[in-house]
Amino acid sequence: MRAGQQHPPKGRILVVEDEEPVARLLELWLSGEGYQVRRAADFDQVCQKMGQEPFDLVTLDIMMPVVNGIQALKWLREYHPDVGVVMATALGDLDMVIEAMRLGAYGYMIKPFKAELVAHEVARAMERQRLVAENRSYQLELEQKVEAQTRELRAAHARLERQVRELEGRDRLVHCQMSGPTYGQACAEILEVLREALAMEAAVLYRPEAGGEWLAPVAALERSGRVVGEEQAGGMPKVGARDLALVAQVFRERQPKHRQVEGTALPLLYQEQVMGVLWARGLEGEDQEEQRHALWRLGREAALVLWAALVREELDSGAVKVDELLGLQ
To answer: Does an H or E element contain 13, and which?
Structure first.
């Protein structure tokens, strides 16, 4: 160590003593032991000093004016629990010392003070305070680690649950495709699947009509969680394919889009043909990116369901023959 360089203080101590000569003597002794010392004469000064700077230890006179040492100790334990406390008392106040120890004081010093006993008691209390502070810090660190691991486990469990719901939804869509639903039934089933898999807030499925000039609502997921079919959803306005609306842009560009205010929309594509357009709201949570990816994956399965429903409609209406359909395949 360089000449003149000072050692760091061994600790910070607040000496609480209403008799100034005694307080100065304690300050002199403890400073000589390498501690940084401040003084307070009464409880008001204790509150003031404790609010201004941190302390490791407080030497607290039991017999203080107005607010005695026991009351001050209770306050310290409540508002500054990491600070060690050593009581200072005369021989006749030992009952109060016992009470102070019960309340959490680390030790006591008997008046009239002796320098070597004061140094020993303060050193012992400082060591205990250090161990208590380290233990509290370790417990806090451990709690934070446990909390972080718990959050990670909850997040992993939530992701796993979402993946399971997505797989169940895809299986349900495959079953729907094979069961031969009408286009309207297929749309309603798709929204039911999306509601269960992604817990969406609201959604609408649009069907291109009039040669792709309009997008007509075929099914809707209401905020109440109820899915309504074409009869109820038909009361909603159609969207012109050339409009600036999000749904129309997605239909024209055949690319999914997300806007914070307007929601998410994606085209349900079978090869290059748009089978329908899905608009959804309620994917704005912490995992919204994962939810949108799941929505797009489910959308691919949904497009197959709608394609199968359209083929069935064309076969039933005679617009396409089985031989023609087999030839296309």
So the answer is: strand 12-16
- At residue 62, φ and ψ (nearest 5 deg) are -65, -45
Between CA 115 and CA 191 the distance in angstroms is 83
Given phi > 0 = left and psi -120 to 50 = alpha, else beta, which region is 161? alpha
In the prediction, which pLDDT does 286 show? 61
- Ordered by where they begin, the domains of the chain are 12-138 (3.40.50.2300), 179-328 (3.30.450.40)
DSSP per residue, 59-104: EEESS-SSS-HHHHHHHHHHH-TTSEEEEEE-GGGHHHHHHHHHTT
Measured CA to CA in angstroms, residue 175 lies from 96, 179, 267 at distances of 81, 6, 21
Amino acid of residue 256: P
pLDDT of residue 235: 73
Pairing of strands 84-89, 57-61: parallel
> Number of C-alpha atoms within 13 angstroms, CB side, residue 324?
7
Under DSSP, the state recorded for 215 is E
* Amino acid letter, residue 300: R
Q: CB neighbours of 54 closer than 8 A, spacing ≥ 6?
A: 12
Cα separation, 14 vs 59, in Å, equals: 6
**Greatest CA span in the chain, whole angstroms?**
114
Query: Residue 188: left if φ>0, alpha if ψ -120 to 50, beta else—which one?
Result: alpha
- Which residues fall within 8 angstroms of residue 7, CB to CB, at 6 or more apart? 1, 34
Cβ neighbour number for residue 25 with a 10 Å cutoff: 17
Number of other residues whose CB lies within 10 A of the CB of residue 244:
7
pLDDT digits (tens, 9 = 90+) for 83-127: 999 999 886 677 888 899 999 999 899 888 999 999 999 999 999
pLDDT of residue 3: 46
Q: What is the arithmetic mean of pLDDT over 26-38?
A: 94
CA 90 to centroid of chain Cα atoms: 53
One-letter amino acid for residue 108 of the chain: Y
- For the chain, the first-to-last Cα distance in angstroms comes to 88
